Amino acid sequence: MLFDQSYRNLLRALVFSQFKRRDQGSLLGVFWSVVNPLLTLIILYIIFQNRIGTRVEHYAVYLLTGIVVYTHFANSTSAAMQVFRNMSALAAETVIPKDILVLAAVLSRSIEFAAACFICIVIAALSGVQLTGAVLWIAALVLLQSLFALSVALVLSCLFLYLRDIEHIYQVLLRLLFFLTPIFYDMEFIGDGMVRILILMNPLTHLTLLARGAILGGGAVLSELAICFAMTAVMLGLGLALFRRFEPYIAERV
Amino acid sequence: MAVAIRLEGVDKRFRKDEGRAPLVGILQDALGRRRDSVWRYSLNKLNLEIEAGEKVGLVGSNGAGKTTLLKVIAGLYRPSSGQVEVLGRISYLAGFGTGMLDELTVEQNAMLYAAIYGVSREHLQENLDEIMHWAELEDFRFTMFKHLSSGMKVRLAFSVYRYFEGDIFLMDEALSAGDLKFRQRSLEVLLEQKNNDRTMLIASHNMAFLEEFCDRAVWIEKGRLVADGDAREIIGRYRAGARVVAAPRDHGGSAVSDD
Question: Where residue B79 sits, what CATH number does that domain have?
Fold first, then answer.
């Protein structure tokens, strides 16, 4: 589908409109996607620097990578989930492949994500982190996480057609996910037990560890990469299969 | 002539109780306990065959199933039973300008609208000046779409429409907006397309236009075919409100499976 010229043409127009849509009536527009994580960083840094922060090297950069990964996942999936409602005329009244709407919503956030990752790297360099060649793996992270978010969004957007409650349920799940991802703590903080297993089962944990491995070094970047790749492949398969099943009913459910 | 659209025994039904406790509906579905009486049939065992290049008018009172029929052909709705075959690339127009977005400018919307209907970017960009000129929106290129009057919006959409390249055009009440001058200009454009090889199925209440533009008309009521034939004759009957005995024509032969 991506190789079809008219599909790409429409995708470009839709991604652009997603940006414009968020830009409307706000002073900073898309820059909020940078400002917002930085503000979150400040809050978490103030709270935790004297506790967990004393143990973790480059704690500010450590926090920022976690926040950036989480923010992209949370924002892109919750925006894409509602895309059929927010663009109901396109979903119900035009003959286009519907996955393109979900893809455009995720992609517009992924472009910001790529920018945010770049800013992370710059901040890391400025604050004295010794960057290595591993930093190039960030490109793989952006790609894998975008595909992973897309897969989740495909599932959510279908569920959303049948059960609007999912919107609220998902917000709660996202909050839970925030605490089940090592954003402001490290794995030592968790100790052994049930919670540790839950955290390790959380896909976002591995995307976060991959981002940290790439920027801060240490950790097993390649094994995290393999885990991220495997779970993205599985999720994408599931997401696409489910979406294909639901796609014919989208126009009448919107 | 090759067949462009063929419908065989097509049913399209919707739940009457939609919007009430979806959980109950899901459970009923799962248990197979759903009774037939909860269904409202928008299309009822409809048979229709349209050949490539035909210009067909679709008439019927409000709620007759015209939009449902067009959406089933467009593939937006899945028929509940029966078969739909379409040969060629479809452009479905639910009014002119559907899909355009308020937060984009006039020019950006022209690009988006063209992209939805598969017009290539280059082709559109080459002709953007002409499109704006035809739509009389040269001074509004960078205006937000939401600030346009509804007439301007339709003009923009129609101006882009002239560059669409589908094989099959399905139009739903697309001809009812705009001022007199625009109507005249748009009808002129459409009438120029009368003898091209596009297949067109047009649902409209503009009988004068349908009579002039279409060779054939299809009249449906309550999801059933009432009459099908020469445009002038059918529209004449529809217009006169002649109560054709509501026994829908039976094409017979097509087994309707219920799933």
Answer: 3.40.50.300
